[in-house]
Structures are given as C-alpha cells and as structure tokens.
Queue: 2 jobs
Job 1
Amino acid sequence: MGGKPWAGVCKNVGQGICLVTMQKAPPFPITRAALSGLLAMFVSIGVARFGFAPLVPALAKAHWYSAAGAFWLGTVNLAGYFFGAAVMRVWRRPFPAKPVVLLFMGLTSAATLGSALNWGWGWFGFWRLVSGITGGILMVLMAAAVVGRAPSAARGRVSGITFAGMGAGTAFSAILVPLLLAKGLVFTWMLLGLVCVLATLAVAVMMPAARIEPSARHESKGLPPRPVLLMIGAYALTALGFVPHMLFLSSFAALGLHRGVAAGAQVAAWLGIAAMLGPPVLGRVADRFGFLPTLGIGYVVMGCAVALPLLVDAQFALICSAIAVGAVALGAVMLVAGAIAGMVPAARLPGDWGLATMVYAVMQALVAAMFSNLFHITGSYGLLFAIGAAAMVVAVLLILLSARLNTKVH
C-alpha cells in the first residue's frame, strides 16, 4: 500500500535485448505529501466550507441574504459536497493526482473570490455549489493521493497532518473572520480568497506526483467489505455524538447555565483547538497501535465526553468535554480513512472512502436538522447529549465487530 520499494529498469544493450536491472524506488516524500494534504483540506473544507458559518450573521445584517437564504446556501454547499464525493466513488479512469488537485483548489479559490461580489442569490449559490463539489472531491482525492500512498508505518502521521487541515482552516476562519468583518464583507472574502490562492501555489510547489488508479468497475461493484461497511456505520453514528457539541454546547454554557457569552465562547474555542490538534496526535497513536484500535478507544472517550455534561456542568468539565469531542470527532475522519486504506486494495480506496464521506455528510445534515427541531420542541440540552452518548455506545460496538471480522478475513 505504501508503494513498491524496488522497480525494474530496462537498459537496451543492443540487438533488441533488454537488460532489466532492479533499482530502489525513491522514498515517499512524507513531509511534502502531508503538508500538501493539509493545505488542500485547509482550503476546501476549513475555509471554503466551514468558514461560511461565521459569515452568515454579517451577510444577513448587510442584507446580502436573509437568514433563510443563508440556510439554503448551506444546503446547496452540502449537496455539492455530496455530489463531489459521489463522483470520486464512481470514477473509473486513471488520472494524475497533482494537476487535478491544483485544478480543484484553484476552483475553490475562484469560488471564494467570486463570493466577494454581491450579484444576487443565484451568483452566490453557484459558487457555494462549486466549493461544495470541490470540497467533496478533494476530501476523497487527498486520501487516495496522500494517505493511500504513504508507507504503512507512517500512514497515521501522514493522515493526521493531512486532515488537521480541516480543523486548522475552521479555527483560522473562526478567529480571523470576526476581525476582518470590521473592514467589510468584500474585504473579508477577498482576503480569504487570497489565502486560498497562496495555499494552492504552495501545493503546486510541494506536492509529489502521483497517479490514481481506481478499481475496474467489476472489482468495485457493490458495497465495501463487511468490516469496512460496519466501520462506515460507526462513523455515521458519530454525527449524533458530534452535533450536540458542535451546535449546542456553547449555547448550553452561555444560556442554559446562564454564564454568559464569554463562557460559551471559551468552550467553543477549546472545541476548535482540539479539532485542529486531534488528527495529528491520534495519527501518531494509530501508527503505534493501529487505526481500528485507536478508533475504538477514541469512540469510548468521545462517548464519555458527550455524556459528561449530563453528570457535571462545571465550566472545567465542559471544557474537558469539548476538548475530547473535538479531538476525536475530527480525528475520526483521519482514522477511518487510514483504516480503510489498510483494509482494502489501493484501487478501492477512493470508492470506499467516497462512500464513507457521502454517508457522514448526509447523516450530519439530518442530525443537525433533527436536533434543532427536537431542541425547539423540548428545550432540553440534556436530551441531545443523552442521544449522542447512546449513539457512541452503538458506534463502539460496531467498531469491535468490524475489528473481529477484519481479523478473520486476514
């Protein structure tokens, strides 16, 4: 999975005779590949996708779009993300990875810059759709081009650095956007677009060449192997564990416990920091103990952390809960991608990881809508945390079953 250590080289010695000599293949450029993956995730997911949320209040206040319009723009972006991941799942022709990565990072940059123009909902909706499609494609593509090609002994480190880009981009947007908005929406979009352009240029310099060879249609027909399918099911259930913290923990601290905006912001900040640092830390752990065991233990920790506010509501406890959930929820993206890379042939990775990406995206959107309506009806934060904790128990059981089946297969 990490590339062939030796390669045959043909040397023509005359009269149609080819002398084949074995030469050691060049080592996989771990640092350049991992940093390229980080920047691709930073741009396509952290800035272009999750960076939209801090802008919504300003867009509504400036009368660019109503709150309902902003909601539909988010829906359009999610639809594009799903479509992009679906394209990578069904794509069957080989292609060079680096030019394609640069193409879609360039389109993401164009979408961010294009959003600076207030030319109506259709214009903005088009660019939100484009950024969603590029995000879905790059999420799957970087797993195949970087994580799937990394040596097995370093796969955790490489995937951890790669997927840390999501948390880094989200934290970057959450911190920088409120400061930039003082200079206006146009300035904010333009600066975010410039950051995307600079990141794309850096990837153009750093990213090693790679060729993606998807499975033939008959080889990838149907669902993934059962161990992978069970792991994808567990991954989808983590949306039930993550959404209460992502959407409601800050509000719980600020409003539910009457501690004010500062307390809510403190919890949200720690959640973002953990989301940024979780993938590289868990990647190191996975290199030592394996992806599936690390994922299983991580889900146990996350389940306990989701349930913690039900038992203790002290501010320190909420911060600890936010750190654990943020680290594992974002780290799980890397762990699932790395686990799939170790369980299936390299050619199946884009399709199977594409399916996992699609399922999680849909599940997260459905859970967010369901929990929002449930909270509107009941006004209970505790009910949301309880449902999330119960879902994590089921996720742990699915991971245990996946590990057991995977051991039998191998």
Note: The first strand starts at residue 6 and ends at 14.
Job 2
Amino acid sequence: MLPGQLGKPRKDLRAYIEARRAEASAEVRLALRLLVEGYTRNAAGKAFQAFKSLLAALAGERREELRNSIKNVDKVIAYMPTSMIRDVGKLLGLEKESLLALALHQYQYNGVDPEGIMSIYTSRDAAMKDICNLLDSVVRVLGDEPLKQELSNVCGSFQG
C-alpha cells in the first residue's frame, strides 16, 4: 500500500477509521484555505468531502450497530456513497449536518442563484455561513483543538 492510501476496512477497520479521520482533518484545512482565497464553491466541495470522510469513520466505529440497518454496511463504510449520506447521517445522529453537506455538494456544482431556482444559495455569504457551520460540526466531532482555532480565525464572523 502506498503512503496516504486507504486500506480496506474489512482488513484493518481501526487503521481505516484513523485514515478517514485524518482525511477529514486535511479536507477541513483545504476548505479553510480555499475560503480565505475566495473560492467558495471549491471550499464547499472540500467541506462536503470532510463530512463524507468523517461519516465513513464514524460508521466504521459503529459498524456492528449499523449492520442491522444498512444493507452492505462494509461497502457503505468503504465508499460512503453520496446516495447514503442522508440515511447514515440520520442513524448516527447527524441528519442536519448530512442535509447541509448535500446542499453544499449541490452548491459546488450550481453556485449562487439569486433567483433561487438552480441553487438554494442566493448569495455567497449564505454559502460561506453553511460551509463554516458544517466545518465547525466536523471539527467538533474530530476534537482537534488547533484545527478549531484555525476554523475560528477564518470563520469567526460566519459561524452561528
């Protein structure tokens, strides 16, 4: 296995979970950098990826519990398909965050639409607020204090 490459969860679930948590942390840092540079759509994509990685890690941690509720739980943990994010998030108590992640995923592709037809985001500020709120949720679950400070420095005025 190459450095930085994820192993298969069925071979070493603990290592997989740690790798996905590290990936979530890296995606948060990239999202913050993109926000600072003004690339909100790209930051939205990274926030989505951060949440998706975190959700896969949390699902791995609660694999046995999810086994009865999710068909092909090992595949879902390994790939965390976008189509399963809402259901898995709900089972893990992260339904609001799942819906926010999916909205940001849509924003990544459609951008701002002042008329609200092609996107629920009618301004970049609204998208930035949601990006910051999703990143805050991810960082809280990760429990990474230095990352929490970084988030506060970038998103301080948008959180809440």
Note: The chain has a mean pLDDT of 93.
